[in-house]
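Annual report, structural modelling task.

Input specification for the pyridoxal-5'-phosphate complex:
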Amino acid sequence: MKERKLIMVPGPTNVPDRVTRAMLKPMVSHRSPEFRSLYESITGNLRYLFQTEGDVFVSTASGTGGVECAVGNIVNPGDKIIIPVFGLFSERMKEAIARRGGVPVELSLRWGTAPTADQIGDLAEKERDVKAIAVVYNETSTGATVRELPEIGEIARENNLLLIVDAVSILGGDKLPVDEWGVDVCVSASQKCVACPPGLALLSVSEKAWEVIEETDRPFYFDMLKMRSFREKKETPFTPAVPLFFALEEALKMIREEGLETRFRRHKMCSDAFYDAIEAMGLEALPDEKIRSQTVIAFGKPQGVSNAEVRKIMSADYGVVIAGGAGRLREAMFRIGCMGIVSETETLLTINALENALADLGYQFERGVGLEAARGRFHS
Ligand code: PLP
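The model returned the following structure:
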């Protein structure tokens, strides 16, 4: 068994050694000048990542904690929130709204599709007294990206609604200029396209959102006003996961060194290679081409092979870990995380392992076609 596997699930993803090593730094007090300079460095680079002049925060919580924080600071009991549901994570966001006492105005869509601006616009026009639109930008369960998010941002602006976006599985891997697109509260997490270990939620907040947050009955741990007031001291309200902050600082520096545009292009090139390989092997991506994610590749499992067996062989014989489907698609799909440090190397290793595992289990196809198709994207 290889000690270090290639982690190609849709989070957590492979962490560069430079980032892992950063966690070994000696502990610092979170009420010290050392922590304040760490906080400042993270804040500056997070603004770059979110492409915002607004406020950014890091909370010691997973992505779900970030979503709960966003919802808890915007939604009061009885508030109506438009939410398209097109997969597991949008379903969870709807549930977070409902648990908070909010009233989800649900746009229920087939898994594998994504909401359009027209669909959201129609709801915004029809429904009275809506407070916000909540959107999962990249549905990790189906590999579908909401390509009309900028237009949805326009709709939010025109109707004076807030726009809350779950960008957990996409920030850092695809375009998301939150100010330009009018995103009021954006949530992400450390363990996906940022290529940092799990455990930190990343948030951005617009000026317009603060006016609402100030009037909301906020949670205790996730009180964003408290986060804002501690920000003045460059501190967090409660004890943060300091080693993860060290890691995040390094991961964000790496993003800055590479540059966002280059990073997005790299994700796109690798995802194109994955989609070409899948198609060449006679397999089918779940979403239509127009809304396919460049960070999560979701595709159907061929008939006659066991999902778990394929993944077991990939992991045991090739050291490559991919995911099965999520929720009700658990058995029917595979999902590959095309995130973080992904490059030609990781892409081709994954396709090679997939081809071999499928061939071992008797799936009929011309061995090598996937690799050849993928290679074309890197060497045309
Ligand atoms: N939202 C989306 C879109 C996700 O992909 C995930 C995790 O995969 C989450 C929320 C939840 O994040 P976590 O598992 O870090 O709590």
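Residues 141 and 326 are 5 Å apart (CA to CA).
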